[in-house]
Design brief:
This protein is α/β, with parallel strands linked by helices. The protein is built from 16 helices and 19 strands. Strand 9, helix 5 and strand 10 form a beta-alpha-beta unit.
């Protein structure tokens, strides 16, 4: 059992509310209100992109100062991986100023959060998701089968999505993430039918209060040209590149503590052309934004790239210039030792999605080897059609268990060397610091002075932890059954308070999302 250390403190914030609207009024008027707050009217009476790089709601803050105190244990994830008993934080303007035992912190603040009997952890970082897929959970025809079968079933349904449908799905997904302790989310959106735009996701996330990395994803290689997606789901490449430039110039924020960043993310090697991969990389490097795509998720993809290009998926990325510290790949299950070395040498990161990989029988990613080689690894819940959930703390648990299951493939059986067993604390490190590194951020992922006030807390006095939480509360948060957060704070502002989402009328949104999902699935 780890001994708890004693050191400094930090801060937190409260919900500022929806000015001018009740929560129910805000939602019944539709998420378009959120977008409208940030858009101006052009000379023809239409909506023009905001001149500011802030999305609607992104400047909402909590109290000026916040004191978080009396946590049974605070997991800092700092350089020494300190776990501080009776720990807390002192926060100013959404930034952590002090970290340590409660006795070392200021005695008062504008907002005080007493975490007696709670564990306090850095906010979790989700490095791969498709939020729109909350509209197509557990579709019967897609419940059993590999990723290509799954895609063929769902593509026609996604082609029916309307902008309001997608906004509802994003609200549901962000709420589910926040309730699992997630404070930063990357959304890989690459289907834009019927007037859907990435702007809607950006404004919806800003209103919700989630730290958000939005992808201007893309698909350009339809079935008629040899790709997997139907032609109804792809776009013209000139339009993709033009809109990618617009989105970067309108929304990308590279400052410390940024709430919104943009990523260019062609969907996969079998859904875009070579030219789009190359041109996307050129644009990303011109604007200094990151690159992301699916890679080596299934044997089907490997066969596709070998047949078409004569190289494996990772080799194709090298050919396209898609390697470097500004690149991370989703899944990367079917990767050999030489390719792991290439990832480590060039700085490529990996978004590990254990639940999705199991659900679609894709395989087990070599996470332990990645970490041993120095490859940055974060967690992703993946789409809610291939995971059917968006619980990032559950994903940390599953990552630990799946890595252990993979030890059964070791010649001679599982090793006795415990260093080869992914521990609960290592799983938490992947979910926090690992995710921050994958997204290229040094302002989140740990509780340290100067970092963003992003954290979550869980009450240890619940049946899920009984018999374990007072023995090793840090391991319990991963080993025991996944639980919801009692508090989730982003940028010093409550997003979840006493187990309830504060920035959304969640029951109303769920009801609307259910109606939209029935229509999208049934046609």
């Amino acid at each position: 059992m780890n001994k708890f250390e004693f050191k400094d403190g930090e801060r937190l914030a409260d919900d500022s509310g929806h000015q001018g609207f009740t929560r129910r009024e805000f939602l019944t008027t539709g998420s378009a209100v959120a977008a409208g707050l940030a858009l101006s009217v052009d000379s023809k009476g239409g909506l023009a992109a905001p001149k500011s790089k802030k999305a609607a709601g992104s400047d909402r803050k909590g109290p000026k100062t916040m004191l978080v105190k009396n946590a049974t244990v605070m997991v800092t994830m700092d350089g020494s991986r300190r776990e501080i008993a009776d720990g807390g934080l002192y926060i100013e303007e959404g930034v952590i100023k002090q970290v340590g035992p409660t006795s070392s912190l200021p005695k008062t603040a504008d907002e005080v959060l007493d975490l007696k009997d709670h564990i306090l952890l850095p906010g979790l970082v989700n490095t791969h998701h498709h939020l729109y897929q909350h509209l197509t959970r557990v579709v019967p025809a897609a419940q059993d089968g590999n990723v290509w079968n799954w895609l063929k079933v769902l593509y026609p349904m996604w082609a029916r999505m309307q902008p309001d449908d997608v906004k509802l799905a994003i609200q549901v997904g962000l709420a589910e993430l926040a309730l699992s302790g997630c404070t930063t989310a990357f959304d890989h959106q690459y289907v834009f039918p019927n007037g859907c735009k990435i702007d809607d996701a950006i404004h919806t996330a800003a209103e919700f209060g989630m730290r958000f990395h939005a992808s201007r994803g893309s698909m350009s290689l339809g079935a008629s040209k040899g790709g997997l997606p139907p032609d109804s789901c792809v776009e013209e490449e000139s339009a993709i590149l033009k809109d990618s430039q617009r989105v970067i110039e309108t929304y990308h924020d590279d400052k410390h503590g940024a709430m919104t960043r943009i990523v260019l993310a062609p969907c996969s090697p079998f859904s875009v052309t070579d030219d789009l991969m190359v041109e996307s990389a050129k644009m990303a490097r011109k604007y200094k934004v990151n690159l992301h795509t699916h890679l080596a998720e299934s044997p089907n993809e490997e066969r596709f790239t070998l047949d078409k290009y004569g190289v494996r998926p990772a080799g194709l990325m090298e050919k396209f210039g898609w390697v470097g510290k500004d690149v991370w790949f989703a899944h990367s299950v079917h990767i050999n030792d030489a390719e792991i070395s290439m990832f480590a040498k060039t700085g490529c990161g990996v978004a590990h999605c254990p639940c999705s990989n199991m659900r679609l029988a894709s395989g087990i990613a070599p996470v332990w080897k990645y970490r041993q080689a120095g490859v940055n690894v974060g967690l992703g819940v993946d789409g809610s059609s291939s995971n059917d959930g968006s619980h990032l703390l559950a994903e940390a648990r599953q990552a630990m268990l799946l890595a252990r299951l993979n030890l059964a493939n070791t010649p001679g059986g599982p090793p006795t060397d415990k260093k080869q067993w992914l521990s609960a604390r290592e799983a938490l490190e992947i979910a926090t610091l690992g995710g921050a590194a994958v997204l290229g951020r040094n302002d989140i992922g740990s509780l340290e002075p100067g970092k963003c006030a992003d954290f979550f807390a869980v009450n240890l006095n619940r049946v899920d932890f009984a018999g374990g939480s007072m023995i090793d509360p840090v391991a319990s948060i991963v080993f025991c059954a996944p639980v919801t957060a009692d508090y989730t704070v982003i940028n010093g502002r409550y997003i979840v308070k006493q187990g309830h989402v504060t920035t959304l009328d969640l029951p109303n949104v769920i009801a609307q999302c259910n109606r939209a999902a029935r229509r999208v699935v049934s046609g």
